[in-house]
Amino acid sequence: MKKFLKLLLVLFLLLIYMYVLVWQNLPDELVLFEGEKVNLKTILGINISENVETLQASSNDIGQQDETVRKTNLEVSLFNDLLVKEINVDILEKATVIPVGNIAGVKLYTSGILVVGMSEIEGADNKRYKPYENTGIEEGDRITKVDEVEVTSTDELTKEVNESKGAKISLTFIHDEETKTCSIEPVKTENDEYKLGLWVRDSAAGVGTVTFYDPDSKTFGALGHGITDIDTNELINIASGEFVTTKILNLKKGESGNPGKIQGTIENQKNIGTIYKNSKFGIYGKVEDLSSLGVDASKEMEIALRDEIKEGKATILCSLDNKAPKEYEIEIEKVYRENNYDNKSMLIKVTDEELLEKTGGIIQGMSGSPIIQNGKFVGAVTHVLVNNPDEGYGVFGDIMYKQSKIVE
Predict the structure, then answer these.
(1) Domains within the chain, CATH numbers bracketed
(2) Is 298 a catalytic residue?
(3) Number of helices and strands (H, E) in the chain?
(4) Catalytic residue among 90, 141, 352, 398
(5) What is the DSSP letter of 236?
């Protein structure tokens, strides 16, 4: 009997834990299109309903320009009796964009100087030091000031450290979005330089595919995933960024266990625009030179709602040879309509023989290639399955468009 009661208690606690997890995963805010269904994962007993009394229209700054949106609340209740959460909702008018598919270069400049590693220093006295010990600084932190002097580049940090002549300095840094300060004593090396033992970086660069252009706001979305630091694997917190044209130099074909990639250069290329956001659903910015983006205005199309996306044939739009983008056939194998949490919204498979011959499937640099189905913009390529390069994932187009409208 005691074993049975213990089992019941464990099952009861597991049930409570499941409900708590569902509540925690429900967002506080949502952006929806008119006519779009609320795709949120729930379990038995958790009900979501619209509080129609709150419905209102307002001018809102969720984008780069003012636009009228409707606002409402969704009420999350337990068995329709106990209100447990309210979700604020902005409802946008159905939108159109122009799928692009061109390769472009990305230059990101970090907000603060990113710490990517640490190492011992051999001092001028031939002893080894770790000046960073007990300071609280960790990989992934961002240094913003030296003795109250703001630093925005590695050169500025180096200059301030050398000017200390070995005297203790105060560093201001951001750790887990919390601003902290510490005291650290630079070590003099045999070259008469002063070091902290910190490996740092202030920028990142690469190439990817432009997904869409919004002619109303003159903004673009690209990549479908965020840019992370190669050392810390954390999303780069940017202060600014540039988008430039690129020249494709070579294609490395993908094979099982070894993903291919597009190799290109961003040196001496034209500026397309500025980047204002690096998110887990892509990078976003303002277009300043539309001619450099290579937009085909005749391809403007609606963004598909999730319920309009079907398993079956579709195409992706990408450029692999410094010429105009071309459509290639794919198959949408599975649609995860309730996924609002990451950029693996659809499982896709490359079926186009020409593309398979050129690339072996999905390769690095193709991330952001727009997915089109039944004349509508469906989403963008985001990932490749390393052991099966003709398969990968795509993110919903509605998620990318909404991200372009949310300024954080």
Answers:
(1) 16-94 (no CATH), 97-107+203-405 (2.40.10.120), 120-196 (2.30.42.10)
(2) no
(3) 5, 28
(4) 352
(5) P
